[in-house]
Design a protein that fits this description.
alpha/beta, Rossmann fold, Alpha-Beta Plaits, 2 domains, six-stranded mixed beta sheet, four-stranded antiparallel beta sheet, 12 helices, 14 strands, binds adenosine-5'-triphosphate, binds magnesium ion
Amino acid sequence: MIQLVDVVKQFTTRKGKITAVDHVNLNIEDGQIYGIIGFSGAGKSTLIRMFNGLELPTSGDVIIHGDKINQLSKQALLKKRQKISMIFQHFNLLWSRTVFDNIALPLEIAGVDKSTRIKKVNELIKLVGLEGREHAYPSELSGGQKQRVGIARALSNDPTVLLCDEATSALDPQTTDEILELLVNINKQLNLTIVLITHEMEVIRKICHRVAVMEHGKVVEEGTVLDVFNHPKTEISKRFVRDDIQDSEIETSIEEIKEAYPTGSILRLKFVGSSTGQPIVSRVIKKYGLDMNILAGNVKHTQAGSFGNLIVHVEAVNGSLTPITEELRDHGVEMEVERHG
Ligand SMILES: Nc1ncnc2c1ncn2[C@@H]1O[C@H](COP(=O)(O)OP(=O)(O)OP(=O)(O)O)[C@@H](O)[C@H]1O
Ligand SMILES: [Mg+2]
C-alpha cells in the first residue's frame, strides 16, 4: 500500500514560492495500475518524484509499505529505491552501453555476481520481448524498443512499485499500445504496482484501474476509471473524458439519423462497464429475431469493461420492447428509446 498524507511541495524561485503539489492525499493498493492525469504544470512529475525520494515533500508524508520515504536515511533510501523503480519519457538509457549492459547496470550497482546477472538479464530481455537485440546500442533501436530496455532495466532488482513518468508520450499510437500492453502483462505476471502519470486520458482508460485528476497541484477528482469516465464530476475531468470518447459526434449524428430513417425505432444502447461487451447485443438480436442495424457508435474499452453508446435502428419490433430492455440491462447494457416506431 502506498499512502500520501497531506503532501505539499513548494519550490522557492527568484519570483517567489511555487506550490507544485498542494495537500495531496492518496491511497494506492498493491497490485493496482494507478493513473494520475493533468495538464502541463499540474504537478504530476513533482508528485511522482516524491514516491521514490527524488524530491522530498515540504510537509506531509509519503508512506510505501510502512516506510516513510521522506524520513529514510540516505543509505536506506538508496536501498528502498531498488524496490521503487522508474521509467521515463525519454528513456534515460546509457548510449555507450548495449541493451544487455543497460539492463545489467542496476544489478552491477547492487553488487550482484556475474552469473546471476547474466541469468536475470536474459530473463528480462525475454519478458520485454527484446530477444536478438541484446548487443544492439540504444541508437540502433526504435522508440518502443528503447522503452522496453527502460522497463527491463527498471525491473532488474525485482521492484514492488514501478513509477512511469509519461512513459509513452514520445511514442506513436501503435507503439504506445504495445508498451501499454507490456505494462499490463508485467502488472499481472509480477503483481507489480504501477503508478503512471500522463496527460492522455486514453492511456488511463486503456490500462488503469483507478485514476486521480490533478489541477494546480491538487487532486480534484479520484475514483475507478469506469466511474470517472461514466460520471466525471469536475470540468477538467469532463474535458479529458470528452477528448477521449468524442461523444459529441454521436449527438450530432442522432438528428441526422432520425431524418435518414423516418420509420422504425431508433434505440441507444449504453454500455456502462459491461464485461460481456457487444456479444450480448448480437445474442439478444438473434433471440428476438430483430433486424437491427448499427448506425453510429462509440464503445471504448477499459480494464473493467466496455462503456459508451451504440445507436441502432430496428425496422419493426413485434410486441413490447420491455423484455429486450430487461435482458440487456441484466447484462449491464442500458437501452434508451430515441424514437419509437
Ligand atoms: N525544481 C523546480 N524548481 C522550481 N519550480 C519547479 C521545479 N520543478 C517543478 N517546478 C514547478 O512546479 C510546477 C509543477 O511542475 P511539474 O513538472 O510537476 O508539472 P507536470 O504536471 O509534470 O507538467 P508536464 O506535464 O509539463 O510534465 C510547475 O509550475 C513547475 O514550473
Ligand atoms: Mg511532468
